[in-house]
Amino acid sequence: MSTDNATIELNLDRELRVLFENRLTQLKSEGLYRSFMPCEHDAGHPGTTRYQQRQVEVWCSNDYLGLSQDPQVIDSLRESAALHGSGTGGSRNIAGTSISHVELERQLAQWHGKEQALVFNGGYTANFEFLSTLIAAVPDLAIFSDSLNHRSLIEGIRRHPCQKYIFPHNDVETLEKQLASVPLSQPKLIVFESIYSMDGDIAPIQVILDLADRYQAWTFLDETHAIGLYGASGAGLCEEIEETRATFIQGVFGKAMGTLGGYIAGPASVVDFVRSSAPGFIFTTALPQALLDATLCSFDRVRTDRQLVQDLHSNVIFFRAQLDLAGIPYLPAQSHLVLVPVAGAERIKTVARRLLDEFDIYVQPINYPSVPRGGERFRLTVGPRRSHEEIQRFVAALKHCLA
Fold first, then answer.
1. Domain-located, residue 80
2. Is-contact 310 336, C-beta < 8 A?
3. What are the strands, taking DSSP E only, across 47-137?
4. 208-242 pLDDT, tens digit each
5. Same domain, yes or no, for 81 and 212?
6. Where is each Aminotransferase class I/classII large domain found (predicted)?
7. How far apart are CA 292 and CA 102, in angstroms?
């Protein structure tokens, strides 16, 4: 390599490093730099973690039912790992499809009343890969997407060029106008969520499905934050309202199920096509059988032991009542999620830091781009095993740090 070329490479490397140092400085100045808290979750004490040799209560976990720390689920993981090892050694088409994958997919399809289900390594991957593969395969497909859809849905829709319509959040009147503007014979897909996690509100599912029938549209419903918590057997809000018309249902295992992974359930021909076509599915090492066996155990718990869900919803009611008594405002969410506004990126970080330093309580600030600037908030969750005394102590600590 010549001296000139070496100098050019050195200068380019230096310029790129400076570019990213400046980007990081900007993120920090805007209060958008993300700091992670290294911790050790405590299976013996659900809802707690070890941080810097201290036991800390976690009040923002998506492990809604505490099943990631459930003894039966842990035993299933341990026993299966002893039998099958810690990994699969390949993708689903290279000896990575275990009998537990097949059984879980069978049960998921049956649970949602669909022809077939497909397990992915995560909820984000499920949304992105399924939608992007579907859009690429259907000529002239028109997409109708709620403005507050999760980033995984948005990126899946953006991946390939298509006719896109964004309707204001839960605005069914605008959605109908958009649907009416497209020829009845043109393929259409409405993409929305059942529970929107940053506001805790619920979609008008039946109205949207009525519109889908009227305008001959398919529907893709993300039930991420409803799976395990709503419906007689925990199948989500569609089951809760006895609705079966959604074309595709997406769910995850990393929230109420307490493990890891995501899935899509829907018509067999479409799901099978995605199974054979989605690059993020085909070229990814499969989830280990031990994890799938733990998920099957958790899945069984969710469907048969509804006491955990009843206790969670009871605690949410008590939690909101205590916030009312303390004069702490929260968003009027319809779901189990409790959203407490704390405007200002720096202010919410300060409150979160005080809760951790003074009370051994961890809550993660939610700020831009997850919510608009000025709309910063805490997304609080209260597990079924929390006592009323713990809830009252948390509310008192939050009131103190907000003052």
1. yes
2. no
3. 48-51, 54-58, 116-120
4. 999 999 999 999 999 999 999 999 999 999 999 99
5. yes
6. 57-398
7. 10
